[in-house]
């Protein structure tokens, strides 16, 4: 641990990034936290309203695709570490617009790597490029087995291919130039502030509005779910105590078939909304599968469990219940992020002149 870190967090206005920014700003008043975000449809400064006036926090609007801009930022602020979360993150969007994923996830990561290398190369000591990635890079598992840090990469969607590519570049910069890096690959996250195109917030919203719940294929797809605050804490721990030039898998040994997850969600929603048990389940409809759909992801989190003594703080039932409560209490947030009125908020807040 170091006293006066200057940390660049990219993608801090997004779902996971906002939890990471909040954690660091609150826990480390002696650090300077710079949140760089382009504010795409997925980025929303309302996610950080509670900390935006903190003296150790600076928001910078900008695009990681712009190499000159990124270089200038490194020179101006002299960051000593990067936690890189900015990305195009939605698999379905990657199937319709793969190039956008190459630009942000591959080129954007390259620009950050280059700027870090150039600005740090005289002295790599105490520097860290921490790249946040996904378990989707490992491809699909059959009915058994788990992804370990040694599992070969085998991405199937343009999203996972772009993340795999960025992981490879980060490792290559470590090997070729000695840039100190860490990569972590995490399972599916859920929790507050997630854009309502992703399964859990989408379905909470649909159940609330009594709209249908489109489940892909036969619903037997299996995912490993982790509460977003637990991911943020794992990131903090890895940042502080993880070994340089290493990869850590992050997961809660918490596999759910999609259909079982949706049924649990329906049950909890019925209870919270005072509806008869079974009401929401009637909204389930099965829809045509998406192409390249991976059957099963599951993380072996033994390394982070044993090396860093990390484990999730909540059960899935508890985390899901807290997530539903948050969405029910923040329906204004939900309508704001989908209507684009947060753009007005941004203009009011940051472009006063
Ligand atoms: P998100 O889509 O909610 O947020 C991404 C953020 O990046 C947004 O604030 C967006 O405005 C910003 N951004 C996008 N393009 C940018 C650009 N060109 N320049 C600057 N900022 C840009 O994503 P998320 O779910 O919070 O995921 C964050 C990271 O974690 C991603 O790298 C993702 O691959 C990884 N990850 C996500 C999950 C998950 O379940 N959501 C799981 C494992 C890993």
TrEMBL record:
Start and end residues of each NAD(P)-binding domain: 8-322
An example Gene Ontology biological process: nucleotide-sugar metabolic process
SUPFAM superfamilies: NAD(P)-binding Rossmann-fold domains (SSF51735)
Domain of life: Bacteria
Documented EC number(s): 4.2.1.46
Keywords: Lyase, NAD
Cofactor(s) needed: NAD(+)
Record keyword Oxidoreductase present: no
Pfam family, one: GDP_Man_Dehyd
The keyword Lyase appears for this protein: yes
Gene Ontology terms for molecular function: dTDP-glucose 4,6-dehydratase activity
Reactions performed catalytically: dTDP-alpha-D-glucose = dTDP-4-dehydro-6-deoxy-alpha-D-glucose + H2O
Classification via InterPro entries: dTDP_Gluc_deHydtase (IPR005888), NAD(P)-bd_dom (IPR016040), NAD(P)-bd_dom_sf (IPR036291)
Record family assignment: Belongs to the NAD(P)-dependent epimerase/dehydratase family. dTDP-glucose dehydratase subfamily.
PANTHER family attached to this UniProt entry: DTDP-D-GLUCOSE 4,6-DEHYDRATASE-RELATED
NCBIfam families on file: dTDP_gluc_dehyt (TIGR01181)
This protein's name: dTDP-glucose 4,6-dehydratase
Organism, as annotated: Salegentibacter salinarum
Lineage: Bacteria, Pseudomonadati, Bacteroidota, Flavobacteriia, Flavobacteriales
């Amino acid at each position: 641990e170091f006293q006066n870190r200057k940390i660049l967090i990219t993608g801090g206005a997004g779902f996971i990034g906002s939890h990471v920014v909040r954690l660091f700003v609150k826990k480390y008043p002696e650090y300077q936290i710079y949140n760089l975000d382009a504010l795409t449809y997925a980025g929303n400064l309302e996610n950080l309203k509670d900390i935006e006036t903190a003296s150790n926090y600076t928001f910078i609007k900008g695009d990681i695709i712009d190499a000159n801009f990124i270089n200038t930022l490194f020179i101006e602020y002299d960051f000593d570490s990067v936690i890189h979360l900015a990305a195009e993150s939605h698999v379905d969007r990657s199937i319709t617009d793969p190039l956008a994923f190459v630009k942000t996830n591959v080129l954007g990561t390259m620009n950050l790597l280059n700027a870090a290398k150039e600005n740090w190369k005289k002295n790599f000591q105490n520097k860290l490029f921490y790249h946040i990635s996904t378990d989707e890079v490992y491809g699909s598992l059959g009915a058994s087995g788990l992804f370990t840090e040694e599992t070969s990469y085998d991405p199937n969607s343009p999203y996972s291919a772009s993340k795999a590519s960025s992981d490879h570049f980060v490792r290559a910069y470590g090997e070729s130039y000695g840039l100190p890096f860490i990569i972590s690959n995490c399972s599916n996250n859920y929790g507050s502030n997630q854009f309502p195109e992703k399964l859990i917030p989408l379905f909470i919203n649909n159940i609330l509005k009594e709209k249908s719940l489109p489940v892909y294929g036969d619903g037997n797809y299996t995912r490993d779910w982790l509460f977003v605050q637990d991911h943020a804490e794992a990131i903090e721990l890895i940042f502080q105590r993880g070994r340089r030039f290493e990869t850590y898998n992050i997961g809660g040994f918490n596999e759910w078939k999609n259909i079982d997850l949706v049924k649990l969600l329906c049950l909890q929603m019925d209870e919270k909304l005072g509806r008869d048990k079974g009401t929401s389940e009637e909204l389930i409809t099965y829809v045509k599968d998406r192409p390249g759909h991976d059957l099963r992801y599951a993380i072996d989190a033994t390394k982070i469990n044993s090396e860093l003594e990390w484990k999730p703080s909540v059960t899935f039932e508890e985390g899901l219940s807290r997530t539903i409560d948050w969405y029910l209490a923040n329906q204004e947030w939900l309508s704001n992020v989908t209507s684009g009125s947060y753009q007005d908020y941004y203009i009011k807040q940051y472009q006063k002149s």
